[in-house]
Design brief:
Blueprint: H1 2-23, H2 26-88, H3 92-175, H4 185-207, H5 210-237, H6 243-248
Helix pairs in contact: 2-3
């Protein structure tokens, strides 16, 4: 039973993880990755600082031990010189005391020499570790700078991807139905083209029919009657004909109200 429950728990955890990964915003995930890289750089710098601090402390201890070694060595030499002078002066007691003091300095000198050797080894190792830590920090800093530069590139690509997705969605909506009650652009275009084609076909049938010819003849008759009526009205009003009527009148035809040749003019006697 416990084994089955554990399997179900692993399945649910994987399912939730996949759902989260699918719904997660890439921009937020990118910022999280950059923040993690920056935290890693900060931790690495702290560790490197500790390594460098240990190297500095070892260097201080080495310098102090070497100073102490030089001082003890000088004291041992001085004690031997003083013992030798006491021997020359016949002061055997002081000579013995100075010799014992010189031996004590010699013992201290041996301890300091071992300590100095150990500190030199430690200083060499700590210096090498400090150099490695500095190189690691520098390398990780360069990698972080590359990630920051890549973040700008990825953000730009992400914006372009979002814009392209919106364009694809807009173009898809032009050819796909938005809803059950909304026709597509293709359906509307087909409907308009069918209506236009039907109207053109009816117009062609109307133009070739007998009724159309009859209407055309009737219209021509009405136009002729209208022109005759206009001419009559012009005559009654004493108006001259327009440029069109003048062009239609023969050049040798006498104008209205002008006597023809050989006809006596009014008021002329025979």
């Amino acid at each position: 039973m416990f084994k089955v429950f554990r399997r179900w728990w692993a399945y649910i955890t994987a399912k939730l993880g996949m759902s989260l990964e699918e719904r997660a915003d890439p921009k937020v995930q990118l910022e999280q990755a950059i923040a993690e890289a920056q935290d890693q750089q900060r931790r690495l710098k702290e560790q490197a600082a500790n390594v460098i601090a240990h190297q500095k402390q070892t260097e201080l201890r080495l310098n102090r031990a070497m100073g102490e070694l030089e001082k003890v060595n000088g004291n041992a030499r001085q004690a031997l010189l003083m013992a030798d002078e006491a021997v020359k002066g016949g002061e055997q007691t002081k000579a013995t005391q100075y010799t014992a003091t010189a031996e004590s300095f010699a013992n201290r000198l041996i301890v300091l020499e071992r300590e100095v050797e150990d500190l030199k080894t430690m200083h060499l190792q700590s210096t090498e570790a400090a150099n490695q830590a500095k190189a690691a920090v520098q390398q990780n800093s360069s990698a972080l700078q590359q990630k920051l530069a890549e973040r700008q590139k990825l953000l730009s690509q992400l914006d372009q991807a979002k814009m392209q997705e919106q364009m694809n969605s807009a173009m898809s909506s032009l050819s796909e139905a938005v809803g059950q009650d909304v026709p597509t652009l293709n359906e509307v275009r087909d409907k308009i083209e069918a209506r236009y084609a039907k109207a053109k076909g009816m117009a062609e049938l109307t133009e070739s029919s007998v009724e159309s010819r009859m209407l055309e003849v009737e219209q021509a008759s009405m136009n002729s009657e209208a022109q005759a009526r206009l001419a009559q009205i012009r005559s009654q009003l004493g108006l001259t004909a327009g440029s069109t009527d003048t062009a239609d009148t023969p050049a040798d035809a006498p104008a209205e109200g002008t006597p023809s040749p050989g006809t006596p003019s009014p008021g002329t006697s025979g």
